[in-house]
Amino acid sequence: MSYFQYVALAYGVFFAVLAWDFAVPRLQVRRQLREVRNRLARARRQQAAAAVADDGELSR
Q1: Interior CA angle at 48 toward 44 and 49, to 5°?
Q2: Where are the domains positioned within the chain?
Q3: What is the pLDDT of residue 14?
Q4: HSE of 44 in the Cβ direction (CA atoms, 13 Å)?
Q5: Rounded mean pLDDT, 4-28
Q6: Vertex 1, ends 18 and 12: CA angle to 5°?
Q7: pTM confidence score
């Protein structure tokens, strides 16, 4: 392996790790925000269903 190949490979690995360190936290934040939105939507649906079921009328 020549010096140029060594340096090129080192730069390639560096930029790959740099891109990984940039992308992964953003993907994790997006996933966590999606989970929170889904949890809130589920809670709202449950509250709406409870409000409809508790309208005072008897169901058959």
Answers
A1: 115
A2: 35-59
A3: 99
A4: 6
A5: 98
A6: 10
A7: 0.63
Q: How many residues in the chain?
A: 60
Whole-number pLDDT of residue 58: 63
Phi and psi of 58, rounded to 5°? Answer: -85, 145
pLDDT at 15: 99
Buried b (16+ CB within 10 A) or exposed e, 35-50: eeeeeeeeeeeeeeee
What is the SS3 assignment for the chain? CCHHHHHHHHHHHHHHHHHHHHHHHHHHHHHHHHHHHHHHHHHHHHHHHHHHHCCCCCCC
- The pLDDT assigned to 60 comes to 63
